[in-house]
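chain below, 282 aa
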Amino acid sequence: MPIAKVRGANINYEVLGTHGPWIALSPGGRRALDNVRSLAARVADHGYRVLIHDRRNCGLSDLVIGGDTPEYEVWADDLYELLSQLKALPVVVGGSSSGCRLSLLFALKYPQAVRALLLWRVTGGPFAAARLTENYYGQYIRAAQQGGMAAVCALDHFKERIEARPDNRVTLMAMDPKAFIAAMERWREQFRAGAELPVIGASEQDLNAIKVPTCIIPGNDKTHNHAVAETAHRMIVGSELHDLFPGDLDIDLVPPEDWALKDGEMAAVFADFLRRAQTKAA
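prediction:
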């Protein structure tokens, strides 16, 4: 897969499809692009070029931990630069969970660059806020405080990054634990600041400001529940809601592989939505 130098970081990416309008899709969590490739391929089959990429600190892209900017803003700025390099703007942008938050921020920060939004597994509410704050930041802060960077390397996410790229261990072990902790604490507080909003990272005013065609597919667990998706649908004027998993399960997180079973159906929903949106715009 190709590598692009994006704002000082090496970003691993892939483009599926050879013609048609551009779409950028991002997975949830800090998962690698593999987790959205199947859906991207099915969307590409409908006549699109679909960009998927490993965000920094994810997959095969560089580990770059630090800076004053919130992590999701870093990801949004990286995506904008990568799309600019590929001459892929304006673009349809979408994602699941953290990829959904990335897409919303991208649309708010670069409204002129967005044709439409495809959002699934929207996150919000006290349970999601507490769980994700711990999952993304708290566990790493504690590990570094108790065992330094060696303990950080042993945690699942960074252990997987090291297995994928052994030089990542060198990068992590070269970091001052105090600097790592400070960066993670900064990102944690920035995340917390948006955690009590209607959708994590987006206020009612933000959601009201989105004017591009938007398709929303609710999640079905305690982290991605129907009520949050319905709130986003209500606040994004003109958005459409398509429910593929009626009802919420009483579990923290439905495994991504369960959602992968719906990739064909999701791709069809998105393709039909985009076809109708394009017809209205013509």
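Strands lie at 3-6, 9-16, 22-26, 49-53, 91-96, 114-120, 214-217, 240-241. The mean pLDDT is 96.
thats it, cya
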